[in-house]
Structure formats: C-alpha cells, structure tokens
Amino acid sequence: MAAAVTQGIGATAALSSANSNKFQFTTRRSLSERKGSSIVIRSDGNPRAGLNQHSNSTRQLVTNAVSTKPESAAASTVSKPGHELLLFEALREGLEEEMDRDPHVCVIGEDVGHYGGSYKVTKGLADKYGDLRVLDTPIAENSFTGMAIGAAMTGLRPVVEGMNMGFLLLAFNQISNNCGMLHYTSGGQFKIPVVIRGPGGVGRQLGAEHSQRLESYFQSIPGIQMVACSTAYNAKGLMKAAIRSENPVILFEHVLLYNLKERIPDEEYVLNLEEAEMVRPGEHVTILTYSRMRYHVMQAAKTLVNKGYDPEVIDIRSLKPFDLYTIGNSVKKTHRVIIVEECMRTGGIGASLTASINENFHDYLDAPIVCLSSQDVPTPYAASLEEWTVVQPAQIVAAVEQLCQ
What we know:
It is an enzyme of class 1 (oxidoreductase). Residues 85-260 form the Transketolase-like pyrimidine-binding domain. Keywords: Chloroplast, Metal-binding, Oxidoreductase, Plastid, Potassium, Pyruvate, Thiamine pyrophosphate, Transit peptide. The protein is α/β, with parallel strands linked by helices. The protein folds into 2 domains: 2-15 and 83-264, 3-Layer(aba) Sandwich (Rossmann fold); 20-81 and 274-403, 3-Layer(aba) Sandwich (Rossmann fold), CATH 3.40.50.920. The protein is 36% helix and 17% strand. The protein is built from 15 helices and 14 strands. The protein has a 7-stranded mixed β-sheet, sandwiched between helices. β13, α13 and β14 (370-374) form a beta-alpha-beta unit. The chain is globular and about 60 Å long. The model is unreliable at 1-78 (pLDDT under 50).
C-alpha cells in the first residue's frame, strides 16, 4: 500500500507544476577593569543575512570581532518594502513557493489536506496541488514518516508535518535508523532530502505529553540537521532552505509563536541552515538562545540596559551543527556566556553548547558558562506551575547581574 501511494505521489509530482540566586562566579577580570566605567547601549536591531555561499567550517575566526550598530527598527520598517505575515503564514508562503518551484516537493501528515494542518500551515495547499501532493494520512506517525523517507529515496522531497512534535516519538526508529543513517549505510547511493516539522514546546496548559522539546532527543542522531525558527522572517527562510537541502532537516516551530507578525521582503530569500542570527550587539555578556526564549531574553535585555548592562543576544537558530563562527567571535568580545533555553537541563541543547564553547573557546572565558534551562520535570498542567518550570526574564536578569560582578 505504501509503495503504491509513494508511486502515486511521484507520478503526480512529475505531472504537476532554576533559581538564579544560587549562581556564584569567580572571574579573573571585572567589567570595570576591562571596559572602564563607560557603557555602550545599542538599539535592538534585527539584521538579517541571506544564504551564505561559504561553509562555516571554512571561515576563519576573528580574534577581536566587533559588531557594528544596526539601523533602528523604525528606520528599517520604513526603508524596507515588503508585506506583513504571521509566522504560520510565512511558513506556508515558503512551502508554497517551493512547491511551485519544484514539482518533487510534497506534504505528508495528519490533517494537512483540506483541514489545513493543526495550525493552518498547509491551509489551501490541497486545493491548489491536489490530494497526492498534499497527502492526508491516518494517525500512524511511524508509517507515514517511514513512507516519506522511502519517497525521498526515490527522488521526491517530502515535508512531514507532525501534528505535535511529541507524537513523532512514535517515529523515532524511522527518523534515527533510516532518515539519519541511510545515506551512510547505503554507501552514498541514496540521499534523504526530507523535512520534518511541526509545533512543539511549552504552550499554555497543554499538559506534559503535548509540551515536549524533542531537540534534545534528536541531537545525537548522525546525519540529521536541526533548526528552530523564531520569527516570521527566519521561519520562511529556514523552511525554503530545509526543503532545498540534500540532508534530512528537522524544523522546530514553537506553538506559542505562530501568531507573531512581522514584515518580510517581497523578493525571494533563502537563509543559511548553519548560521546564527545576531539579534542585539553588545559588549558585556553573550546570551545564546533560540525559539520562544528569544523573547524572554529580549524582555530581560530591556531591564538590563536600564541597569547599565550591554548584553549581546544571539539566536543560534541552527541547533545542529552550531554556528561556532558567530558564537566564537562573540565570546572573544564579551568573555562571558549565558545560555537560555526551554529544553530540559539534562542532556539538552544548552549542555551540548556549553561543551562546544568550553572545548573551543575556554581561554577566552572570564567566568563559567551559565545555562538556564527548564526544570527536569514533566510539564505541569496548572498554569502557575507550568510557568515555574520554564526560564523567566527575571531569572535571566539575575544571572547576568551575578555573572558580571
């Protein structure tokens, strides 16, 4: 049955167009010793980079990298034409552009057809492209994920939607043993250009089973790339880049960010899957974050600026591999690092990032790396308890104050 459906898709494609007070740090140099009494306060900009033609691995680290001051948000809005989209609409626009561009792109998942997906990312696509390029499936994640991997082996470019990322645990065998490893175990005979995407993270009283952060589960699988979107702009750019990639890519979308609105360019753009985004240049401390925590960090940054601190905020975006070029240059400038994530503390992205920074940039650190993560407990249903398990802006402010003493 799966083979018949896969052949049908191919035929259609061919014809279609924690508590912060506990932190204690010992530093070799204080801020006043290195920077004097002056404090540089920069505006919150959002510079964006297009597709980088050079691999991060070929770039040389700049010893004394200094970020330039971006133009103000107001000037940027006025000077840049474009159109406003909600994040889920930007995902849809990116997906639709790629389906127009390449008839091998197809969508597979539960309710992705005429219902339009659980968060309406695929709304209207079944009417436009037909039921075989936008294929509704039974509630059987292991089956349709395996079918998508098989379709990718035959030359298609499937986009798999998990109605909730937690449900994809049912397809862990297919994602790990097939999706991540088939290119290697086949001796390079097969490529697996598949995108796996869907909503995840701690929502609002969704309960433990619907509040999973699976990035920690998938990061150890060889051959898998992972990215996390946080704005409408990077959601579209990362979606297009993931579809065009010859590697399997997992795109993490946060359930609470779908209705964020942003002006994005009218012209086509594609982002680099392995590149972090400099959200706010600063001098005193590097704050690394991604997904929903970007907004908690920026909320904390406003308080920190009022208190005289100048934090540098980086949205790492690429969860695997890390953009050590951007991260390294920031560490060499600020000499202090705080990682803020919604992932669990044990075995999370923050733990891997901490290890990478210590391995590559230990000599540039003036204090131990601080990692603020969700507590290692099932996410409670009660709203007050749910909030308590996730890092809040006040904790970030307190951690920066402790680190910069």
